[in-house]
Design goal:
Helix content: under 10%
Number of strands: 9
Strand content: over 45%
Structural class: mainly beta
Radius of gyration: 15 Å
CATH architecture: Sandwich
Number of helices: 0
CATH class: Mainly Beta
Largest sheet: 5 strands, antiparallel
Order of helices and strands: EEEEEEEEE
Number of domains: 1
């Protein structure tokens, strides 16, 4: 599990290798990630957009940008959290994801909530 904290936002990430959807012989490794976004502030915050940088073990980089997450732009009340699960595919059994969310607070001020790098790895590949 990886945890990142922006002044009022805390993100926890848990990843899973999806062996049944992966095809190592074809350089296809599928991972899911579940992110819990906790609003530690005194007012609500809405997630507007996301940006991910995904890097595989060969150094291949992929940038993903878009509105919201899993088709939603959730508003997270103060002292509450929002959890979602998504996934990605890389060509190696090991990779790293990092990124940020663009959010807006109850006053209409936009801010960035950073997501620290987290590992995508096939179980037992690292000792």
């Amino acid at each position: 599990m990886t945890t990142s904290v922006t002044p009022t936002i805390k993100c926890r990430v848990v990843t899973h290798y999806l062996e049944d959807q992966s095809e190592p012989d074809n350089q296809r490794y599928v991972f899911s990630y579940t992110i819990t976004i906790a609003n530690l502030g005194s007012g609500e915050a809405q997630l507007l957009s996301r940006r991910w940088l995904i890097t595989d073990a060969n150094g291949k980089k992929l940038v993903i940008e878009g509105e919201g997450v899993v088709g939603e732009q959730p508003t997270i009340p103060a002292n509450d959290e929002y959890t979602y699960t998504s996934g990605t595919i890389i060509e190696t059994p090991l990779g790293v994801m990092q990124g940020h969310y663009v959010m807006v607070n109850e006053n209409g001020d936009e801010f960035v909530a950073e997501i620290s790098p987290f590992r995508l790895s096939v179980p037992n590949i690292l000792h």
